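Example: Fibronectin type-III domain-containing protein.
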Amino acid sequence: MLKIKKFILWTVISALIVNFNLVGGIFKLEKAEAAEKELMINEFVSYPSSGSDWVEIYNPNDYSVVGTGWEIYDGKSEIKDLSSYIIGPKKFLAVDVSNRLDNNGDSIYLKRDGSTIDEISYGSGGEINPAPLQGRSAGRFSDGNDKWTYFSYPTKGESNKVPAPDGDKIVVNSNPPGNQDTILGNENASKDLLTISLYSDAGLTNLIPGGGNIEVFANGSFGPINIGDNEYDEIYLIAIDEYGNKSEIVHKVNDIQKPVALTFSSSDLDPYYKPGDQISITVKYNEPVISVTADLTVIDSSMSSEFALNQISADTYQLITPVLSEAAAIEGRDIAILFTAKDTASNPDTEGSTYKVTIDKTAPSATARPLPSAITKKTFNIDYTASDATSGVDYVQLWFSYSSDGQHYTDWVSDEQHYPSSPIPFDTENAKAIFAANGIQNAGGDGYYDFYIVATDKAGNSSAEPSEYTIEQASTLVDTSAPASPSGFSASAADGYVKLSWVPVPDAEYYEIWRASSDFVLIATLPASQTSYVDKDVTRGKTYQYKIIAIDSVGHRSEAALISIAVPRLFTIIPKVKAAPKTAPVVTAPPSPKEEVAPPVAAEEVKPPVTEKGKILGEEEKQGKARNWTPVIVIGSLIILFIAAYLGWSWYHKKTTTERW
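Written out as structure tokens, the predicted fold is:
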């Protein structure tokens, strides 16, 4: 019994050991297979046209793979360590290998931790034989597939596939019934391809007459190929390279539209022209066109009815006509030019498109509005009016001339600016630079200006520019500074009046005279021609202040000039003069306004009066002695009055006393 138990135990143990080994082996196998699929060689160039040869590694998984432990070898040794790279899911890593691959044949190994995970050989005896030609690559088709092939168009770091035709460079046309439908590929429509297959549906029903493929020319273009009189809603194309590899299907909707002119534009932005012009019009279509013509007989019967336009781009053409003659250019005439075109599929623009131009050979009119006679600012606006009956005014230019004295003016100059609307800003300081640029010095700033407006219409006609004898349209004086303060301001006084004098101020329009004994008041406004003034409204014995202000024609006021002066007293008592015997002293009365007065003297100095004998009283006699006689006369007068009053009272008292008794 014990032996049976031992047998059973050993049997179970053995079974467990065997089972474990089997499971372990399967696990290791699955791990190995998984490792083999984790990264793989996808494409390589061993004989580059330029630069280094390279190897492309592909990660077919849905997770990223770190390159630690991964290496690329050729038939001899390691050529690239991938430890510094991380390859994302479904991504490519192309690494240069410094021309380590042999042009004629070699082997490429992808190893991880020393174990070979993937390999490919090329050249004699290799899986890819012969070796790829210069500039070609070898790779899996498609990515990660076991099938290896050649590519005439290497896809370094990208998915391995044959390039499809460029849809933007292919025109498929379905003409009206009775005509042949065509397909046409423009230059570079199919780069590095040999042939194109053409189908009417995704089921790949061949549309090419007799079957087969369409040849692709060296420049990448193909066709046109007639595909019969059919109305296909959709066309499908497949490109085939020189190794027979096919591109993905390209879907193209049929072209059944005729070309239509989308926009017209003229070189002058406006459709107006004058004699001597060449009509220039640019037309843009909704698609590429192969020809555009214009009927110019509407302009001149001697011109062509099918005038060919110059091609600017695939969908844009330009018309430049011969020069318009005076006879053909009739004022106000509207000309409708007919344009016709054909697209690259030969669809005609049967109805054509028209563009209207208008002839205008009359210059516009313009004039500046009047300005104030004087302006006190350096910058101001000039208003104008301008009109043109046919095309309308496009812009105006400002012309101006300058004079410092209002008599002698400079030549006319222009700032050469185009002003589309009124008003025009004018700056007298900027005018200085414009005059200088025209060789005219010392012009601009304050002074007299004449202005003239020249207008240009949308056809290019301009009104006449001003000349030497042109009459200005507007003028003004620009005066931004005050006149100088009057110089030489002086005053003299005589008994009962004050005389003021000054030197004239050049740019003064008038003067104001102010007087003050306490506060200044205006006493006179005088013209610029007057240089003196007599003030008779004064009080003898008082001192006055005077000021004079010069005002120019625009109202600028100068600084005031000031002076102070005393007016002599009413009269002076002069004592007896010994110059002539028997001649009593004479009291000189002040001269009446009608009498002749002595000439005025300088301020603060009054000449002594003259006696009848002609002797001039000295200052000491006139002032000192006269001042001493005044109290004597007063006291004497009082004494006489007192004595008279006393005598009168005594006489009255004596009389009344006698009568009483």
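Helices lie at 2-38, 428-437, 619-660.
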